[in-house]
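Duplicate of #3305? Posting structure anyway:
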């Protein structure tokens, strides 16, 4: 039985759709689909049924999943026993602040699983490193840039705050509003400049660096925060998220690198599928 087909099957089962499996394995979706069809043909049964949001395992698929996981685990164990090259591959990846824990954990997890014997060290983006995950404005002249995420800045508002009840928020609505300030943050600097021009008073209650701490303080009711919003963050039902109607700013996050290597090639493939 084709182990790769089983690997794709397990990924489809765990991710819930062919498109998500394609991104996870950075393989074109038609290849994933063809592999699944071949596996279903060899077993003479359907393993998934399609629905609006992806796929659902059939009874046969539910039966196959634990067996496939066990077989793939045994195959990995066999490879590990007979692997002759156990040399670690050190790799330094530079990161800017405020990328978001959830999506970076997912991305870095897939990266480390994709490179055998990887020894990953995360450093600040301005330290020596082989690649960086940065905002577009930090791209160097000799650096290639692969776009990954586009984050629009929005106002994060406590649930019981009056601004959460308004249909729209503009700069004048921010008069004397308590803020949790992220620093450094180009979005906050831009907002502060616009508020000063409009003679809107700024009431800063806290200064922190990370998006996670900012959101925690917003949930606690300390104040609002102006942050770049990702798909994961905006799902938080304990905070209101609203754009500022007369202020449009976003940041583009991507992979920056100057020299290609096998490890960077894996990073590039992962980044391209975001």
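Output from current build:
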């Amino acid at each position: 039985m084709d182990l790769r087909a089983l690997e794709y099957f397990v990924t489809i089962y765990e991710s819930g759709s062919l498109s998500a499996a394609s991104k996870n394995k950075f393989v074109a979706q038609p290849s994933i689909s063809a592999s699944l069809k071949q596996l279903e043909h060899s077993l003479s049964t359907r393993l998934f049924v399609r629905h609006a949001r992806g796929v659902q395992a059939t009874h046969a698929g539910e039966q196959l999943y634990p067996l496939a996981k066990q077989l793939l685990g045994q195959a990995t164990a066999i490879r590990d026993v007979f692997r002759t090259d156990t040399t670690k591959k050190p790799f330094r990846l530079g990161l800017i602040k405020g990328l978001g824990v959830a999506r970076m954990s997912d991305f870095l997890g897939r990266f480390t699983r994709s490179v055998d014997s990887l020894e990953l060290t995360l450093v600040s983006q301005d330290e020596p490193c082989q690649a960086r995950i940065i905002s577009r404005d930090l791209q160097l002249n000799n650096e290639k840039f692969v776009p990954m995420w586009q984050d629009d800045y929005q106002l994060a508002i406590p649930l019981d705050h009056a601004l959460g009840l308004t249909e729209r928020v503009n700069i004048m609505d921010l008069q004397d509003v308590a803020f949790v300030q992220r620093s450094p943050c180009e979005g906050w600097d831009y907002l502060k400049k616009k508020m000063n021009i409009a003679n809107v008073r700024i009431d800063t209650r806290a200064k922190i660096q990370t998006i996670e701490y900012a959101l925690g303080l917003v949930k606690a009711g300390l104040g609002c925060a102006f942050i770049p919003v990702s798909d994961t963050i905006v799902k938080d039902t304990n905070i209101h998220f609203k754009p500022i109607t007369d202020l449009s700013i976003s940041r583009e996050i991507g992979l920056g690198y100057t020299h290609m290597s096998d490890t960077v090639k894996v990073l590039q493939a992962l980044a391209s599928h975001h």
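Confirmed duplicate; merging threads. The chain has eight helices and eleven strands. The two ends are 31 Å apart (CA to CA).
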